[in-house]
From TrEMBL:
It comes from Maritimibacter fusiformis. Pfam families: OCD_Mu_crystall (PF02423). This is Ornithine cyclodeaminase. It comes from the Bacteria. PANTHER family: KETIMINE REDUCTASE MU-CRYSTALLIN.
Amino acid sequence: MTTSTFLQPSETALLPFVSVENMMRLVNTTGAAVFMGELAQYIEDDFKRWPEFDKTPRVASHSRDGVIELMPTADAENYGFKYVNGHPKNQREGYQTVTAFGVLSSVANGYPILLTEMTVLTALRTAATSALVGKYLAPKNAEVMAMIGNGAQCEFQAVAFREMCGINRLRLFDIDPAATRKAARNLAAQGFEIVTCASGEEATEGAQVITTCTADKQNATVLTDNMVGAGVHINAIGGDCPGKTELHRDILMRSKIFVEYPEQTRIEGEIQQLTADHPVTELWQVMTGAAAGRQDDRQITLFDSVGFAIEDFSALRFVYSNVRNGAFCEKLDMLADPDDPRDLFGMLERAKSAPPAGIENMAV
């Protein structure tokens, strides 16, 4: 009898994969607040070295129902991208509005080093970015935040703003009362003081930070000029594609506007309502001290957030740092690794005689 050895994948062929289950385990090990605080540090570090990155507006494929996007970037060591969709109608059909996954690769050899879910991770990095920006722009000692739009992102924003900015009182409004009840229940359990409101106008009363996070893919006026008083910081995160805005144009004209990447934000953000030369300030310059943030107590600051690939790159780096020892991941046989790199066909042929997976060293 002869013996045939099953062709086991080498370590080079195995790629760390973080499933939704493992992502939740990773987050819950530290707690969402601490996780987002640590993630924000990665984002801030990468913003402070902004010129080192390849940058391009995301590649978007728009349809009647939504958008599918690829968000790539790279520095000298790693390349990262995220696949993400945005389909506002999904919630009515029992699907998530946003889903995502991402890959981090080595620039040196092109090999992927991480594959991860990014539906949960995108919610975490969006909130971490918002709160990080709030740390630079929100009024000092702000405690009250209005949350207009109480969907899937709402609780993440609240927890991140408490962790990094000290927000502890929330005023909630959504056109769907069920969404507000859901958010109020979840956030009360997290120790927040909650006020549920009957309108956006009511929600903004006494708020020092106003977060807008709605999903409808249309030019909507979620926030009107009379709802925004002096000294407020606006965290506008719902506008993220052409034709989708939340703020009345008059608010933009009264605000100092801060953006991630102007070339993308002018296409997708609130500032698509303005002329192409309307002045904006890039956040990386604020974080490096090259540009001013909030300049006085009465100034209205506006973070026109659309999400940018470097934030996802930071999130991928952060997750990778937590799974390098084999924790919170499983290994997938993703990369062909023949003994002779030139003999991919030979590896395929040899696999014909290999026994079924899980059957090793069987006598013939």
